[in-house]
Write a structure and sequence with these properties.
mainly alpha; 3-stranded mixed sheet; globular; binds zinc ion
Length: 303
């Protein structure tokens, strides 16, 4: 049961206290070093992360719920013959790019080390992509074809979506939603038993339709930019990506755009942050495989 396992994995308060006590001396001793590191951290400048409320469900719960919904989605796609096979050139491409970014995610969220990352391609004309909590990624065929995305541009979207998971934006939004639904006052009981548990499950059912705040989107743009740059993908492609989004929007706007409006402000923030990751990109080992959009035949005989 979901509720059983997340209760199990909650940190034991006694153990925590012991660790905090033992660690105190260490923290003191290494403080000057830590400060120095903080000052020279290379990359984008973002805040300290999502603000969780007392009503935000535990990360374990959100990840389990996410994994279930992701499997349901794959099952639906499979039953309509819309799930691309692992050997499909574009699935290989998406996996390759995702694996390059992955090692750089851990510095943003330690939990990401133990996530069962997954990448799937869904044969829908819709131009969309997402990464659910716990690293469950899906790209829609329409996004790759409609925008004719190059590898660097895919890496920017991949980094953006991974950041939503890394910074637990869904969990944050679930907490906010619980507050607006009048669940304030139920407190910790909400996460355990009975009716509270059912309400929580109801919230989880909306994982895929959650809307993120503008701050979350900015964070995803910037951290995504850094993840991609560290993985050897050109940060300037974030600009070409949004230009493509904008020019496509005049005809049939990509679904991605409805949750990610392209604006001069958005482009401006990305442009301002490119110099912060340029050095990381310059020094990064570059991808040893290049693919290209569907139909170009680069590094693949078909697709
Ligand atoms: Zn986003």
């Amino acid at each position: 049961m979901v509720s059983h396992s997340f209760v199990e994995s909650l940190p034991h308060p006694g153990r925590r206290r012991v660790l905090a006590g033992a660690g105190a001396g260490l923290v003191m001793a290494s403080l000057p070093v830590a400060t120095a590191i903080a000052q020279v951290r290379e990359g984008v400048q973002v805040g300290s992360g999502s603000a969780m409320s007392a009503l935000s469900p535990p990360a374990e719960y959100v990840e389990q719920e996410s994994a279930q919904q992701y499997q349901q989605l794959l099952q639906q796609a499979r039953s309509r013959n819309l799930l691309a096979q692992p050997q499909h050139p574009q699935v290989i491409r998406l996996n390759y790019i995702s694996e390059r970014l992955r090692p750089f995610t851990y510095m943003w969220n330690e939990r990401a080390r133990s996530w069962q990352w997954e990448v799937n391609l869904i044969g829908s004309k819709e131009a969309n992509a997402f990464c659910m909590p716990g690293g469950k990624i899906a790209f829609f065929w329409g996004l790759l074809t409609q925008l004719k995305l190059e590898d660097d541009e895919v890496a920017m979207i991949m980094g953006h979506e991974m950041t939503h998971a890394l910074r637990e934006h869904a969990r944050e939004q679930m907490g906010k939603q619980a507050a607006t639904q009048g669940l304030i006052g139920l407190g910790a009981a909400l996460f355990g038993l009975g009716a509270g548990g059912r309400q929580l499950a109801g919230m989880g059912g909306q994982l895929l339709s959650l809307k993120y705040s503008r701050d979350d989107e900015t964070e995803a743009d910037l951290i995504g930019l850094e993840l991609a740059a560290r993985a050897g993908y050109d940060p300037n492609s974030a600009l070409t990506l949004w230009q493509k989004m904008q020019s496509t929007a005049q005809g049939a706007p990509p679904a991605f755009l409805s949750s990610h409006p392209s604006s001069p402000e958005r482009m401006g923030k990305i442009r301002d942050n490119i110099p912060n990751v340029q050095g990381l990109f310059d020094r990064a080992p570059k991808p040893d495989r290049r693919f290209g959009p569907p139909g170009t035949g680069v590094n693949s005989g078909h697709g």
